[in-house]
Amino acid sequence: MASIVEETTAAQRAHNKRWWVLAVLAIAQLMVVLDATVVNIALPDAQKDLGFSDSSRQWVITGYTLAFGSLLLLGGRLSDLVGRRLMFITGLVGFAVASAVGGAASNFHMLVGARVAQGVFGAMLAPAALALLTVTFTEPKEKAKAFGIFSAVAGAGAAIGLLLGGALTEWASWRWALFVNLAFAGVALVGAVLLLARHVAHGKAALDLPGTVTATAGLFAIVYGFSHAADHGWRSATTVWCLIAGLVLLVLFVIIETRVAQPLLPMRIVLDRHRGGAYLSVFVAGIGMFAVFLFLTYYMQLILEYTPIVTGVAYMPMVVGMILSSTTGPTLLLPRFGPKLVSVVGFVVGALAMVLLTQIDLHSNYATHVLPGLLLMGLGLGAAMSAAFACATSNVHHTDAGVASAMVNTSQQVGGSIGTALLSTFAATAATDYMVGKTPGPVNLAEAQVHSYITSFWWAAGFLLAGAILMAIIMPNSVPVPAEGEPVLAG
What we know:
Blueprint: H1 2-16, H2 18-50, H3 54-82, H4 84-103, H5 108-136, H6 140-171, H7 176-195, E1 198-199, H8 209-232, H9 237-257, H10 267-271, H11 273-303, H12 308-314, H13 316-357, H14 366-392, H15 401-434, H16 442-474, E2 488-489
Antiparallel strand pairs: 1-2
Helix pairs in contact: 2-3, 2-5, 2-6, 2-7, 3-4, 3-5, 3-8, 3-15, 4-5, 4-7, 5-15, 6-12, 6-13, 6-14, 8-9, 8-15, 11-13, 11-14, 11-15, 11-16, 13-14, 13-16, 15-16
């Protein structure tokens, strides 16, 4: 009886502090998301300081992506088995230590090792954060508002990373692009220790080892294969064999998951139409957002000659649009129109934004040719992402909240990797084709660059439009049922 009373009291305390819990989770999520881009702008200065080659440079980015993307499912399931509070705090501490090591790196290998460690601990942290949000907010109206705020942070984090990376690199040092994580992690850690309650363990924890090995290896191979294709082409033997191995391993993983007693990823998680549609939505959004952040950044810095910090500021209207649609959509649009319509309209608006960006040329200006597309992109993808986050963990048992949350991050990571490879290939081919029969002078080369950006925007518009069609087919239009709350013990 005393134990039951203690659990009830702890659950009530956690409920009373739920909006402070949201703030802690949002800070941690922002740290993980912005770290995917904050280092990008600082990379040229880091390369100059540490003296590594252009061919090695990609590993500072790829090391993080590979570790993060391949370990997310494992991190999500571990948070279900050993506790989300424990995984969240472990991820925070580990991420902070890795960031400190990376910021203090004295050579290339130390920097890459730190980035890989960031990816490992990020894979613990990100699923635990969304899972904690899922089991903390279960009342429909509050859940919609909380998930809207969280999805706004997740969507805007990459753009904020560009601004922060530019500011820190320009005003301080590239090392502060990594050291800044200590501030985020410190605040979140204090909040986590004070606010998060421990969950109640039910039965003996068991981990699906065959599923873990095949899923981790398969995701690693897929992410690496697409990353390798972006730099070495689709005909590279490494690219081909990695993609084949990844597909075979993931098929084997699905077979294993249908036969083991305690699967790493129960098929009921992805076969639910709300959740399956949400994962597909985040996957497609990852491709679209990549096109904006990579090629539009190139355009603003190389053609418009913006400094890194001005480029970051230029993205702020997109962030504002994303925050507006992410925070108002779940509370106003989702209950009234349902996730299908919100997702479809969001992707159509995003596709329209890409079409507007195809109108750029060498003499375009920001106000008339870039700003409208950024605003629409923020509004469209913000709405689609908020609907996806609301559906991704809908009606899920609390013992599956971690792995259901991990699927969101996994889908986004794989989508981003595929987007990187596909759109980079399309852009490179377009630039080469444009120069056929032309003199390679400065103007023609600049025109070829802009043509390659425009080509990538057209392809991204097509992907987003395909996302709208898929959402119209797959996503139900019923309002998602909130996940159940989680029994807790006093912290």
